[in-house]
Write a structure and sequence with these properties.
single chain; about 350 residues; alpha/beta; Rossmann fold; Dihydrodipicolinate Reductase, domain 2; 2 domains; 6-stranded parallel β-sheet; 9 helices; about 30% strand
Length: about 350
C-alpha cells in the first residue's frame, strides 16, 4: 500500500456524493475513482473533481490494482454482491448502512474479510458524532444514574425507498446509537408497522427493545409525518437527557428531573424533583468526515473499526427480527443471549435460525 491509500466510491445517488466529498478532502487518502451506472451522475462528479477517474463498469473499476479500498453506497439489495466481490479482489471495504439484506449475508462478509485480512466497516455514521460520544461520556460518568429507558424518534415526509421498508431505512441509525449507549444487545424485540402508501411496504413503525438489565428502548420511524424530527430522550434514575439533532445550538440538554418513590406504609406516594436544565457545549465536526477518517486509519493500522462487521450484523439481526415481528402482528421475539453475536433466536410461535 502507498503512503496514502487509494479509495474508490461506488454509487453517486443520494448519499454517495457526500462520501466522495469527504474522502476527496481527507489528507490521509487519495480519492482515485468513482463508479456509477448513471453517466450523468458521473459527469457531475467529473466536473466537480476533475482529477478523479469515473467508471460505469464495476468490473473495470474493481480491476484497478492500485485501488486499496472500496466504499459502497448503493441500494441495500446490491450490498452483499458488491462487497463480496470487493473483498475477494483484496480491497478493504466500507459498506453504507444497513450492512446487507440478511444476517447470513453479513456473516459471509465477516468471514471473507477475516480470511482475506481486510478491513470491513459499516457506515453507522452517528457513532462518529461528537454529540453521541459526549452523551456516552455523560452516561458512563453516572451523572444520569441507571438508564430506565430510551425513546427515539426519526420522522419526516419521505423519502420513500424502493426496496426496503421504513424500519430498514431509518431505524439503523437509532439501533446503532442505542446499542452503543447500552453496550448490550436486546433480549426481546417487537415491532408494529402500518402500510399506507405502498402495498406490503410499511411506512410507519414502532419498535420496542428490552435489555437484560431492565433497560428499555422505543424507536418510532416514519416516512409519513408532517414534521422532520430527529430526537432521543434518555431517562435515568437521577437525571434526564434530550438529544435533538436538528437543534444546531443546543443538541444536548440535561434535565435535573426525576421521580422519587417514597415508601409510606399502606400508601404509594411519589416525590417529583425539579432542578436546573443546562446544555453542554460540543465542538461541531462533521460525523461523516470522522467516519471516513476512521476507516482510513483502520485499514492503515489494522485496528478494529468501531462499526465493524459484527456491529453491522447485530443491527441487521434486529432489523430482520423487527420485520418478522411486524409480519406477525407485533409478536414478541426473544433473544436467548443478549450479547454481541446474540446467537439462537426464537419466537413464541416458531423457531429462528
Amino acid at each position: 500500500m502507498n503512503d496514502k491509500p487509494n479509495v474508490g466510491v461506488v454509487g453517486c445517488g443520494y448519499w454517495g456524493p457526500n462520501l466522495v466529498r469527504n474522502f476527496h478532502t481527507l489528507d490521509e487518502c487519495h480519492l482515485k475513482s468513482v463508479c456509477d451506472t448513471d453517466a450523468n451522475r458521473l459527469s457531475m462528479i467529473k466536473n466537480r473533481y476533475p482529477g478523479v477517474e469515473t467508471h460505469t463498469s464495476f468490473d473495470i473499476f474493481l480491476d484497478d490494482e492500485d485501488l486499496d479500498a472500496v466504499v459502497i453506497a448503493v441500494p441495500v439489495k446490491h450490498h452483499f454482491n458488491l462487497a463480496q466481490r470487493s473483498l475477494i479482489a483484496g480491497k478493504h471495504t466500507f459498506i453504507e448502512k444497513p450492512m446487507a439484506s440478511s444476517t447470513d449475508e453479513c456473516k459471509a462478509l465477516i468471514e471473507l474479510a477475516e480470511q482475506r485480512k481486510r478491513t470491513l466497516m459499516v457506515g453507522h455514521t452517528f457513532l462518529y458524532s461528537p454529540v453521541i460520544r459526549r452523551i456516552k461520556e455523560i452516561i458512563d460518568s453516572g451523572e444520569l444514574g441507571k438508564i430506565h429507558y430510551i425513546s427515539s424518534r426519526r420522522l419526516n415526509l419521505g423519502l420513500y425507498q424502493k426496496d426496503i421498508n421504513v424500519v430498514w431505512d431509518l431505524a439503523p441509525h437509532d439501533i446503532s446509537i442505542i446499542l452503543y449507549l447500552m453496550e448490550s444487545c436486546p433480549t426481546e424485540i417487537n415491532c408494529r408497522g402500518k402500510t399506507t402508501c405502498r402495498n406490503k411496504m410499511p411506512d410507519v413503525s414502532n419498535m420496542t427493545l428490552t435489555f437484560a438489565d431492565q433497560g428499555f428502548a422505543t424507536i418510532h420511524s416514519s416516512w409519513l409525518d408532517p414534521r422532520k424530527v430527529r430526537d432521543m430522550a434518555i431517562v435515568g434514575e437521577r437525571k434526564m437527557l434530550v438529544y435533538d439533532d436538528l437543534n444546531e445550538a443546543e443538541k444536548i440538554k440535561i434535565y435535573d428531573m426525576r421521580v422519587d418513590p417514597q415508601v409510606v406504609p399502606n400508601e404509594s406516594r411519589f416525590a417529583y424533583h425539579y432542578g436546573d436544565m443546562w446544555a453542554p457545549y460540543v465542538s461541531p465536526t462533521e460525523p461523516l468526515r470522522n467516519e471516513c477518517a476512521h476507516f482510513i486509519e483502520c485499514l492503515v493500522t489494522g485496528q478494529k473499526p468501531l462499526s465493524d462487521g459484527n456491529e453491522g450484523l447485530e443491527v441487521v439481526r434486529i432489523l430482520s427480527l423487527s420485520s418478522d415481528s411486524m409480519q406477525n402482528s407485533g409478536n414478541n421475539i426473544i433473544v436467548r443471549n443478549g450479547k454481541p453475536n446474540c446467537g439462537e433466536l426464537y419466537i413464541k410461535t416458531g423457531t429462528y435460525e
